[in-house]
Amino acid sequence: MLVLGRKPGEYVIIGKDIVVKVVKSLEGDLRLAIDAPKNVNILRGEVYERNNKIANEIEVS
Question: Where are the domains of the chain?
Fold first, then answer.
């Protein structure tokens, strides 16, 4: 895992076509803008985990 510090306006590039930019940062609040191709799925962690939990429950049944 790569851990970076970024300030508002700074960004990181993933691969050739994904840009993650810090657009707002306040005490305890961070906002990211993600620019990626439409075929790339972007999920919040809690949505990803919920989907995996549901999928695992279906497999076990």
Answer: 11-60
